[in-house]
Amino acid sequence: MIAFEHVGKRYGGRFEALANIDFQVERGEMLFLTGHSGAGKSSLLRLIMRLERPSRGRVLVAGHDINRLHHSQVPFYRRQIGVVFQDHQLLFDRSIYHNVALPLEIQGVEPREAARRVRAALDKVGLLHREKALPIELSGGEQQRVGIARAVVNKPSLLLADEPTGNLDPQLSADIMTLFEDFNRIGTTVMIASHDLALIARLRHRVLQLREGRLVADQEAA
Amino acid sequence: MSGSAQPAPRRGARSHQTRTSSRLRSWLRHHRAMCFDSARRLLRHPLGSLLTMLAIAIALVLPAALWLVLDSARLLDAELDESATLTAYLEAGVDEAQAMRINEALGAHPEVNATRLITAAEGMAEFQESLGLADALGRLEDNPLPASVVVSPRETRPEAVRALAGDLEGVSGVDEVRLDLAWIERLAQLAELGRRVALALAILFGLGVLLIVGNTIRLAVESRRQEIQVVTLIGATHAFVRRPFLYSGAWYGLGGGLLAWALLSLGGQWLAAPVTALAESYGAHFSLPRLDAAGSATLLFSSTLLGLLGAWIAVSRHLAEMRPE
Question: What ipTM score was computed for the predicted complex, to two decimals?
Answer without folding.
Answer: 0.87
